[in-house]
Amino acid sequence: MHGGQVMLKAVERSGIDFILSSPGSEWPPMWEALAEAAARGAHKPKYINCRHEAVAVAMAAGYTKVTNRPQVVMLHATAGPLNAAMTLRAALHERTPMVIISGEIAAYGENTKVADPGGQWLHDLTDLGGSPDLLRGCVKWADRISSVELLGPTIERAVRIAMEPPMGPVLIGIPFECMMEQVEDIDHGKANEVARAHAVDDASIDKALNLIAAAKNPIALTEHVGGDPRAVARFVELCEMFGIPVMETYRPAFMNFPRTHPLYLHHDPKAVDAADLILMVDAVTPWYPASKPPKNAKVIAIADEFPNSRLPYWGYNVDLALVAAPATTLGQLVQKAKASEQVAANRASYQQRAARTGEQHAGYFGKLKDEAQKHADDNPIDPRWAVHALGQALPANAVISEETTVYRSLIQETMPRDQPQSYFARITGGLGVGLSYALGVKLAMPDRPVFAFIGDGAFHYNAVPSCLGVAEEYGLPIHCVIFNNGRYLSMETSLIKYFPDGAAKTTGVHFGAEIGPRPDYQHYAKAHGGEGFRVTNPKDIAKAVEQALKCEQEKKLTVIDLVLSDLNPR
Fold first, then answer.
1. CB atoms inside a 10 Å sphere around CB 376
2. pLDDT at 195 over 70
3. pTM of the shown model
4. What is the mean pLDDT of the chain?
5. Pairing of strands 298-303, 320-323
6. 417 phi and psi angles, rounded to 5 deg
7. DSSP-derived 3-state class of residue 482
8. d(Cα 496, Cα 471) in Å, to the nearest integer?
9. What's the pLDDT tens digit per position in 345-377?
10. Exposure string for 159-182, b = 16+ CB within 10 A, e = fewer
11. Do 34 and 410 touch, CB atoms closer than 8 A?
């Protein structure tokens, strides 16, 4: 069979659900193989044309965040991965596995045994080292295929490398000539049975449990544990047993702990500094700067990666690192605690701590609700009321894909998300992934309404026509809520913070701040078969969500342009 067929067979054997692609001129062998597969009735993998490279990568990431199954992304030559570099870097730092296949060239038309790929490759489609060298810093592993015989085995191996902890994206450069050559596909008929150590030893679990049981003022800090719903359930059980308060840092990637739970608290650096025990549960940056830890606290790290080798600097020192899948480690701690006489003897004190924490929770979040309701009639719409009203209007099964900046903490604390996989967020420094994440999440959870909360600044970084086009074409009715304050408020806030008495403050001229004139964002929806709503009255927020949910039943996407005041809620 030709190389395209070999590639598809390898993808099939790896259990891949989707091939997401931004088309390139080197992919006819794969398209032909997919057509042949469809003719013989094959149902997987399904092909999705994403219209933009960054959309393909981020959409694959969104799907994998829900399913924990890596997908394959095909990108055109070196230009494709370069265009997707930011989203690839995001997948690396968010530990999201996927296999990127990028086109290459080997003979520049000099190989007369296969079809000529065209002079454009010699002229402008290649770079020294190809995609693997250009993008090596944005992926976990990268290499180039040198022979058609290596196509199948390398793709299958790449899937395994992507899934090996710490997980992440891998990239393969594949020459067009290899895809066109004839070769015998070798299916060894064997699954690789891997027995990998996956649990922490009992002695270390006992040591951690003794520290937890004896702590007078413990705090758990988390960012990523919500990526595994099993870990969330065990995390909740552990914290309930000991009455441990839980805080998410300012950049949580998931719903890591039910935000309506009495043990959930606002992140307070003073409280962290006063703790005598810190549980870092899948948290990369539990406090900042790293060199200023809590003064008198023991620190236990629970994570599958230590000490974060992908970062040029980390700087956190811990007393005990339990390095394994957090769900496994948390399960071990829970089981040991249930059998512990020390834990049983101290149960009353743990319950008293839980009660005190519950009072703090009720006080803080009650004030947030009261503050929001004070501004229920403000016009322009106050963001505190907007987030509160959205939280009240969204159904319990709604999923949020969040890509705001100044409103992130407000959304995190005001939205009553309490179910795993109900909240996904961008955590890297690059904007432009929120709509694509929402598409991937919707692809994985088609029966749940998915709302993309996006700042108007971030909206401009997203590949909007491509995302909405994919939503229309593949019946993925996402609902985009644009937090429209007419400016890059984060930039403006920093300007005034660092130059409080400067020329910008005195003149009112804030370069890099305004997004003007403000577009009427609702009209983006009409171009892609959806409905748009512009909300300027604070009483109309719930109505807009209700209309979006009606459109959901009709498989129509929506864009809700939520016009806000320029108040920074921090």
1. 15
2. no
3. 0.94
4. 93
5. parallel
6. -80, 125
7. strand
8. 39
9. 999 999 999 999 999 999 999 999 999 999 999
10. bebbbeeebbbbbbbbbbbbbbbe
11. no
